[in-house]
Design brief:
The protein contains 5 helices and 8 strands, in the order H-H-E-E-H-H-E-E-E-E-H-E-E. It is an alpha/beta fold and 206 residues long. A hairpin with a 2-residue loop joins strand 4 and strand 5.
Length: 206
């Protein structure tokens, strides 16, 4: 019995390999935290870059450098810009995610309003569904009040983050619907267009 007791004490006092075991327990948690920090940093960077890009394009719309003339515009002509070209330009500005992913994840709504506080258009977000059916693309004419909203459907790779933050599960653009877990980054700018004398807006309102 005494011999067994001594052997048991030696086993309990033997600390060989303890550091390896502790590292094996702590390392996955540490790596997970670091990945989360990196991904959240990227998320906030995309948000900041999107805000800057929308501010830039809002200024161009305000001064008549570019015109949003409706969803039927398929190619840019002079100052009249298509949705595809503005989307591509904003994604070039964001730059921190792949352009293809950005183009497939970016939506915006440009429309005139009677006053700065009279934006009554329906939100494209309905519960867990994001639909682009009611989005507008019309920047009006000189002197109009314009509201420019952008939505970036951000997908987290970290399962804890997308289960916590990703509340959009179906993202619909036209006839294409993407299933997943998205967090819509939203940016909005409102302005009154200057009395510019560049190419007029031949489009129609929404």
């Amino acid at each position: 019995m005494a011999r067994l007791r001594r052997k048991l004490i030696r086993v309990l006092q033997d600390s060989k390999g303890a550091s390896a075991v502790e590292f094996a327990i702590v390392a996955p948690i540490f790596v997970f935290i670091m990945i989360s920090v990196v991904e959240l940093s990227l998320f906030f960077l995309v948000t900041s870059r999107l805000d800057d890009a929308v501010a830039l394009y809002a200024t161009r719309l305000k001064t008549g450098q570019i015109v949003a003339a409706g969803t039927s515009v398929s190619a840019s002509n002079g100052s009249v810009q298509s949705i595809q070209d503005i989307r591509s330009g904003i994604c070039d500005y964001i730059a921190v995610v792949s352009k293809n992913d950005c183009i497939n994840s970016l939506e915006f709504d440009v429309r005139t309003a009677a006053a700065f506080l009279s934006d009554q258009n329906d939100s494209p977000i309905n519960g867990s569904l994001f639909k682009t059916d009611n989005l507008c693309f019309y920047s009006g004419t000189p002197g109009d009040i314009v509201i420019f909203k952008a939505y970036y459907m951000y997908q987290f790779a970290n399962p804890l983050l997308y289960r916590t933050l990703g509340y959009i599960t179906n993202y619909s653009r036209g006839t294409t619907t993407r299933a997943g877990s998205f967090f819509p980054i939203q940016v909005a700018k409102a302005f009154k267009s200057e009395m510019y004398k560049t190419q007029g807006n031949s489009g129609s309102g929404c």
